[in-house]
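Lay summary

Proteins are chains of building blocks that fold into shapes. Our project writes down both the chain and a compact code for its shape. Here are two examples, one after the other.
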Amino acid sequence: MIPQPPGENNSPAPSWRLVPFSEEHGPLVCGWRYPAPYNVYDWPDWTELVRRGDEFADEELRRHQYVAAVDADGVLVGFGQLFPLVSESGTPIVRLGLGLRPDLCGGGRGVELTRLLVLEARRRSPGCTVDLEVLTWNIRATRAYEKAGFRISDTYVRDTPTGPAEFHCMVSPLHNFGGIR
């Protein structure tokens, strides 16, 4: 059984690690609810996700692309998707998708999760470019990604389940992050 988060989290800077994203993590992530306007990141109910066989409800996709971030006690604090792509020139790209537990958002803790995911992407695909997409209005996330070393490389509009939206594509440079290994 996966430990549940405490009601309050007043711990100092986290010491997190990545583990395989298990089926037990799915209902927890699907139960996370973000306040507006961040509620666009809410996942559907786990039962619905399983019915559709989408994203981390798909066992094969979960095994190959998803990781869970846990704290020192094994409590789920976030997750990441490492989506493999190839550039027009043939360079491997890993596009990150990530989510931080709602009670941990807004306190600067997304930086460590982002850095851990970059390191995992480079472990899985040495020499790859690591990028991510972020909605342009999400200044909080953009700042966290910048603190993790990402820089905006492009801005564009693309379709989403709720209609067209403007995104930044952000790219991480090839370097290590002070002390996180």
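And here is the second example, written the same way.
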Amino acid sequence: MKHLFVILFLFCGLSVFAQPKINDKPKSSVDFPLCAGGESCDIFVSPEDFEVVKKATSLFAEDIGRVTGTKGHVQVGNPGEGQNIVVIGTLNHNSFIDKLAGDNQIDVTGIQNGWEQ
């Protein structure tokens, strides 16, 4: 019984060092937090977009809350000024995304005329 206790104690001690590392990639200039300092990012969705996109946006905000303890802030409309924002939408159903694509600020050639890409 004494040996069993020692073995269990050693396994408990080892489990502290077995915690998974979430991200070991070095931080770069294009990274941004979804939640930092107790504040979650703002998540924007267009009022003209499909209902399923709005639902996915809400679920994404809830997922951020489950992971970080702070739910994302869903806002319907185009984003204003902000440092950490997420825009979720569909081409030709989100004027902000369409403007970015039209101004060549984002490349949408890989997803144009596609579904769920």
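What can we say about the second shape? The CA atoms of residues 8 and 30 lie 44 Å apart.
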